[in-house]
Specification:
The complex is a heterodimer of chains A (475) and B (188). In chain A, α18 (402-417) packs antiparallel against α20 (437-460). By secondary structure, chain A is mainly α. Chain A is globular, with a radius of gyration of 23 Å. Chain A is 76% helix and 0% strand. With 188 residues, chain B is mainly α. Chain B is 73% helix and 0% strand. Chain B is built from seven helices and no strands. In chain B, α1 (2-36) packs antiparallel against α3 (52-74), α3 runs parallel beside α6 and α4 packs antiparallel against α6 (141-163). The longest helix of chain B is centred in the middle third of the chain and has 36 residues, at 89-124. The chains are: A mainly alpha (475), B mainly alpha (188).
């Protein structure tokens, strides 16, 4: 049960540690006791106190390190049971019907599709293709790394897996060519997170599920910001390489480029199938996900032959494991979101904001800071599932477009994956590059700064996200 | 021995549900498009696959409940562990045990709620929309999966108490990396 992957343990004063651990255990128990006290009329809880109690309980349970899904479920169940009149049967039914929608089923299908293609062979094909295209520019291999990361992350659907796959193939080659280790590690760590903006993206599906938005529109809206961010990261890479005169590769001939393209083509076609299929109205998003799962099975087993048929059950099991985890959080988050609506918390928040004279500019600033802070300690899906039901109604009331809001949350999640102290990409990359977290934090700085600037841009220029869907007539 | 059979059963069930649901939806889409092609029409029209969507949803819900139990065993359920990792070994251990036991309590409560629901719906005799399957059978995954998950939490807690080790899931497994790295090294 680790979000941070590896713990850097500091040994504190033993007695202080024991006191803190008792505090961590007793505070949630005390809050639960308070709920029961409210039920039997021992204490009177006003609407403000009720709202605070939910969040206090959720927070107290989460800092004990228990699974996010369990913390969500326990706090909602305790609250519903003690302080509301909602019948218990309705709660039990919600635990089943919460994920009883065909839209949500896109998540397991996309995970399966990604897992079939999460293979070193696919990573190498992407790298060879990217190198053939941009290898002759300054910082050739590093630039190729940005592009290969973007493509592989989009296809595999996992940022940490991208860092491992592209990193372990590309980093040794870069060091051998004379790039500093830090430079390579910085590029790969940040570029690895590009995938969640480029469709198919699981965090986007989760946002769509949590807010009842359209998966198709979000996917199309992610394309322009995704390409923009990849270009910006590439530009940062190029500038540093240009200033330090890092090595370039000989220019590839068009025949080589064509061959590299054909090798990578089958993997890249997955993106085309998903985007084209949904946009063309051939499939619903969930059907597109199922098609891409079948397609990537065929490509992995019969075209690329990276996987043998006997490896398939293992891939199915791993995908089922990850999907079940996400679906389980969703089940509990649905209950949480039901509770939020039941207690009118988003409304109260929106009213408070308007009464304070705060507009969308201030609101989005607060949202960004909140999400970046949450990104320190939690992984993207949990953050989206907890935050979206609270923030989304407020955003709508302030006139923010739901699609724009979704894209800005997704970019936020990307930044969260690679900033210290607990970005998952950082930990994975530190293992591959054999670098400490502190050193790597310094190494990712130029690219992280680029991402933060881009986040501000996406936040305050809605057209970046909305232009393409509007031109295509989807809005 | 009995435990190992249970482990296998759990793994086989969720892997099967994953694969089968994918195939069913694929067939439903293929059938829908085959009906549109004149040459294939007579073969395709004979199949009525309108129930595919509902079946897929139910299969995935079952996969979710049992997969969540399997996930406890593989340590895939992530939590916020930044703060407890700052504690010393002994205090950290007691907080983690508390978390695991809280998981067991929650799943036991949910399992009991689910059992009550199944019994309640069994009395009414409600059936599902397309498949006309009895709903109590469909909802049976809530008590079964939750009780199994409760058992897994207790199992992990016991093992943790004994050995001090938690199962942990590696989110960054990529197959076939070594051979590819060798290939690239040889090429350059």
């Amino acid at each position: 049960m680790t979000a941070s992957g590896r713990a850097e343990r500091v040994e504190p004063h033993p007695r202080a540690g024991r006191a803190v651990s008792w505090l961590l255990i007793l505070v949630p128990l005390a809050l639960i006791a308070l709920c029961f006290a409210g039920k039997y009329g021992v204490v009177e809880l006003g609407p403000g106190a009720r709202g605070t109690l939910i969040f206090a309980l959720l927070f107290a349970l989460m800092v004990t390190g228990m699974p996010v899904s369990i913390a969500l479920g326990l706090s909602v169940l305790t609250f519903l049971f003690t302080l509301t009149q909602v019948p218990v049967e309705a709660v039990a039914l919600k635990l089943f019907t919460g994920i009883e929608s065909f839209e949500i089923m896109a998540i397991p299908f996309f995970i399966l599709a990604g897992n079939f293609l999460t293979h070193g062979g696919v990573a190498r094909r992407m790298i060879v293709f990217a190198t053939a295209m941009v290898g002759h520019w300054y910082g050739g291999l590093a630039l190729a790394g940005v592009i290969a990361c973007a493509l592989f992350a989009a296809v595999s659907g996992s940022s940490p897996a991208t860092v491992v796959a592209i990193g372990s193939i590309l980093l040794p080659a870069m060091v051998k060519q004379g790039f500093p280790n830090r430079f390579g590690a910085g590029v790969i760590t940040t570029s690895g997170s590009l995938g969640i903006l480029i469709p198919p993206s699981i965090p986007m599906v989760i946002y769509a599920v949590a807010t009842n938005s359209s998966v198709g529109k979000l996917f199309i809206a992610g394309i322009v910001p995704g390409i923009m961010l990849a270009t910006l990261l590439g530009f940062t890479t190029w500038r540093i390489a240009y200033k330090n005169d890092y090595p370039r590769l000989p220019k590839a001939s068009w025949a080589e480029r064509l061959r590299a393209f054909f090798n990578a083509f089958w993997g890249l076609l997955l993106i085309v199938i998903v985007v084209g299929g949904i946009y063309g109205g051939v499939f619903t998003p969930t059907e597109a996900a199922a098609m891409s799962a079948v397609y990537s099975f065929i490509v992995a087993v019969f075209v690329y032959r990276d996987l043998k048929l006997r490896d398939v059950p293992g891939v199915l099991l791993a995908s089922a494991n990850l999907s079940a985890m996400l679906l389980y959080i969703i089940t509990n988050a649905v209950l949480f979101s039901f509770l939020m609506t039941h207690e009118n918390i988003p409304q109260a928040l929106a009213n408070w904001m308007t009464s304070q004279g705060l507009g969308w500019i201030e609101f989005l600033l607060v949202v960004n800071i909140l999400l970046l802070l949450a990104g320190n300690v939690m992984e993207p899906s949990s953050i989206i599932l907890i935050m979206a039901p609270i923030l989304f109604p407020v955003a709508i009331k302030l006139g923010i477009d739901p699609i724009h809001f979704g894209i800005l949350i997704t970019v936020n999640m990307e930044v969260g994956l690679c900033h210290p102290p607990v970005g998952l990409n950082l930990y994975v990359a530190s293992g591959i590059a054999k670098m400490g977290i502190t050193e790597l934090t310094v190494a990712v700085w130029p690219w992280l700064l680029t991402m933060l600037c881009f986040l501000v841009l996406v936040t305050y220029v809605p057209e970046i996200s909305l232009w393409l869907p509007r031109v295509l007539g989807m809005l | 021995m009995l435990l190992r059979i249970l482990d296998r059963l759990e793994e086989t069930l969720i892997a099967f549900l994953m694969g089968a649901a994918t195939l069913i939806i694929f067939c439903a889409i293929a059938q829908r498009y085959a009906v549109g092609v004149p040459a294939l029409y007579p073969y395709a029209i004979g199949f009525d696959l309108t129930w595919a969507q509902e079946l897929c949803i139910y299969m995935f819900v079952w996969m979710c409940k049992f997969g969540a139990a399997y996930g406890v065993r593989t340590g895939i359920h992530v939590g916020v562990d930044v703060f407890i990792n700052l504690l010393g070994v002994e205090p950290r251990r007691s907080v983690i045990l508390f978390g695991l036991l809280a998981g067991a309590v929650f799943t036991a409560v949910v399992g009991s709620l689910g059992a009550y629901l199944v019994w309640h719906i069994g009395q009414i005799g409600q059936v599902s929309q397309d498949l006309e399957a009895p709903m109590w059978l469909v909802y049976l995954c809530v008590p079964l999966g939750s009780y199994l998950m409760c058992f897994r939490f207790l199992q992990v807690a016991y093992a943790f108490k004994q050995t001090g080790e938690l199962p942990s899931h590696d989110h960054a497994v990529v197959k076939g990396l070594e051979e590819q790295a060798n290939l690239t090294a040889r090429a350059s």
